[in-house]
C-alpha cells in the first residue's frame, strides 16, 4: 500500500478529483456496460472465447476466496462473480474516504483482478445517503482498484438514480463489485 511521504501513513482514496471511471445511471447501465465491454473486446488479447467464460469465472471465484478468505461474501452467479463488501468498508458519515481496513481488502482484490484482465468490474454503492455521497464513495472504491493496477477502462460505477428532487434513499447499505468476463465477439 502506498504511503504519504510527509506522514508515512497510508494514502486515503478520495473521489474529489474528476472521475477516472464512467458513472452511469441505473437506467442506462446495461446498455453502457455492453458498449464498454464491446470496446474492450476489440483487443482480443484481453478477451475470452465464449467456451472459456465459465471456467475462468470459476477459477476467479476460487482465487478471490483464496486471497481474501471470509473478509467479504463472494458468490458465483451464472454470468458473473459478485463480491459483497457491505460492512467491510468504513466511511465517515457523508465522507468518501475509505478506511485502512477497506483499503487493505480492496488492495487484495485488485491484486487478483490484475491477473484477470479479461474481466469487467461494475462498482455499486448504496449507503442510505443521498446519491452524491454514494457515487463519490463508489468512485473512491474504484480509485483504490485503479491504484492497485486494475485498468480504469475495465471499471464502471453504477450511479444512483437522481431523477427527482426528492430522491428516495435506500436504507440498506450495499457495496458490491460485479465481475463479468469480456467475451470475444460479444
| Biggest β-sheet description | 6 strands, mixed
Strand/helix succession: EHHEEHEHEE
Q: What is the alpha-carbon Rg in Å?
A: 16 Å
Low-confidence blocks of residues? 14-19, 164-172
Please tally the β strands and state the result. 6
Could you say which structural class the secondary elements and strand pairing correspond to? alpha/beta
- Biggest sheet: strand arrangement: 1-5-4-6-3-2
Strand content: 15-25%
Question: Residue-averaged pLDDT, rounded?
Answer: 82
For the record, give the distance between the C-alpha atoms at the N and C termini, rounded to a whole number: 36 Å
Per DSSP, the total helix count is 4
Q: What overall geometry do the principal axes of the alpha carbons give?
A: globular
Question: How helical, in percent, are the residues?
Answer: 25-40%
How are the SSEs placed, and which strands pair?
Layout: E1 22-24, H1 29-40, H2 53-68, E2 73-77, E3 80-84, H3 100-115, E4 119-126, H4 131-147, E5 155-158, E6 174-181
Parallel strand pairs: 1-5, 4-5
Antiparallel strand pairs: 2-3, 3-6, 4-6
Helix pairs in contact: 2-3, 3-4
Written description of the protein model:
This protein is α/β, with parallel strands linked by helices and 186 residues long. The chain has helices at 29-40, 53-68, 100-115, 131-147; strands spanning 22-24, 73-77, 80-84, 119-126, 155-158, 174-181. Helices cover 33% and strands 18% of the residues. A six-stranded mixed sheet has the order 1-5-4-6-3-2, with helices on both faces. The chain is globular and about 45 Å long. It starts with 21 loop residues before the first strand and ends in a 5-residue tail after the last strand. Mean pLDDT is 82; it is low at 14-19 and 164-172.
Amino acid at each position: 500500500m502506498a504511503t504519504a511521504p510527509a506522514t508515512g501513513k497510508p494514502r486515503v482514496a478520495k473521489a474529489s478529483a474528476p472521475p477516472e471511471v464512467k458513472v452511469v445511471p441505473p437506467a442506462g447501465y446495461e446498455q453502457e456496460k455492453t458498449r464498454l465491454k464491446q470496446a474492450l473486446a476489440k483487443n482480443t488479447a484481453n478477451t475470452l472465447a465464449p467456451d472459456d467464460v465459465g471456467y475462468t469465472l470459476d477459477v476467479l471465484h476460487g482465487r478471490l476466496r483464496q486471497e481474501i478468505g471470509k473478509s467479504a461474501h463472494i458468490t458465483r452467479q451464472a454470468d458473473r462473480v459478485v463480491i459483497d463488501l457491505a460492512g467491510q468498508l468504513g466511511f465517515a458519515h457523508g465522507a468518501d474516504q475509505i478506511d485502512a481496513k477497506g483499503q487493505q481488502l480492496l488492495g487484495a482484490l485488485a491484486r487478483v483482478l490484475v491477473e484477470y484482465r479479461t474481466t469487467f468490474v461494475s462498482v455499486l454503492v448504496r449507503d442510505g445517503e443521498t446519491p452524491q455521497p454514494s457515487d463519490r464513495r463508489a468512485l473512491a472504491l474504484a480509485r483504490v482498484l485503479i491504484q492497485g493496477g486494475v485498468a480504469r477502462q475495465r471499471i464502471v460505477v453504477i450511479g444512483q438514480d437522481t431523477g427527482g428532487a426528492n430522491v428516495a434513499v435506500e436504507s440498506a447499505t450495499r457495496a458490491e463489485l460485479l465481475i463479468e468476463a469480456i467475451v470475444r465477439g460479444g
